[in-house]
Design goal:
The chain is an alpha/beta fold and 229 residues long. The chain has one domain (5-228): NAD(P)-binding Rossmann-like Domain (Rossmann fold). It has 6 helices and 7 strands; from the N terminus they run E-H-E-E-H-E-H-E-H-E-H-H-E. It has helices spanning 16-25, 57-71, 95-123, 144-164, 182-187, 199-210; strands at 5-9, 29-34, 47-51, 76-79, 126-131, 169-176, 221-224. Helix 3 (95-123) links the parallel strand 4 (76-79) and strand 5. Helix 2 (57-71) runs parallel beside helix 3 (95-123). The longest helix is centred in the middle third of the chain and has 29 residues, at 95-123.
């Protein structure tokens, strides 16, 4: 597969900036999607800014159709949108927090997958990579809503892999430990960052999965725990 065009959701976030840059450096044309993203965020001729959210199927389809209109196709979907909430036991967690975690971590993926997959099936190929979390398979206390939503994401992506293997589409989910992003540094200023995962490492893995080397990998949930193993 000679992949040329990638759609990156959450492209201006702590991980998204690394993924967008890595794909651009690897020769992809990249449509970076995020509510406040701007063309000036990435100084590259092959970058297209898509200022949009994917909080509904309608919004996801509108954004996807615009990418197709402007760039011609979507070879790779790197879905990075997500959110975190923690600090409460399951018994203490309220409905709003539980619902918000599922909408941010599963609903956004559900919307963009339904929008992108038909285009990939029509093309007869495609690569899908989503960002999950170590908590999906290694849950901890007081992150129940978050961990459950990321576990649901893993199931969703694995199902997509099974449903679309006949069309030459791969679908995988990466499960990083705590990543060394500005947001996590601000939230945990006294943490031992030597145990954290470098976002650039996750970005390189996404580029590999999008390239020739990743063509036989599908339905995988790939742990990236770094020194925190």
């Amino acid at each position: 597969m000679a992949a040329t065009t990638a759609l990156v959701t959450g492209a201006s976030g702590g991980l998204g900036t690394h993924v967008t840059k890595a794909l651009l450096d690897a020769g992809f044309s990249v449509a970076g999607l995020a509510p406040g993203i701007r063309r000036s965020d990435f100084d590259h001729a092959k970058f297209t800014a898509m200022a949009a959210a994917i909080d509904s199927l309608e919004a996801a389809k509108k954004a996807t159709d615009e990418v197709i209109a402007r760039l011609g196709r979507i070879d790779v979907l790197a879905h990075l949108v997500g959110g975190f909430a923690g600090g409460q036991t399951v018994a203490e967690t309220d409905d709003a927090t539980f619902g918000r975690m599922f909408e941010m971590n599963v609903g956004s993926a559900f919307h963009i997958l339904r929008a992108v997959i038909p285009h990939m099936r029509a093309a007869g190929e495609g690569r899908i990579v989503a960002i999950g979390s170590r908590a999906a398979e290694d849950p901890g206390p007081k992150v129940g809503a978050y961990g459950a939503s990321k576990a649901a994401l893993v199931s969703l992506v694995r199902t997509v892999a099974l449903e679309n293997k006949d069309a030459g589409i791969t679908a995988n989910v990466i499960l990083p430990g705590t990543m060394d992003t500005p947001g996590n540094r601000a939230a945990m200023p006294h943490a031992d960052r030597s145990q954290w995962v470098e976002p650039a490492s996750v970005a390189r893995l996404i580029v590999w999965l999008a390239g020739e080397g990743g063509k036989v990998v599908t339905g995988a949930a790939i742990p990236v725990y770094g020194r925190g193993l």
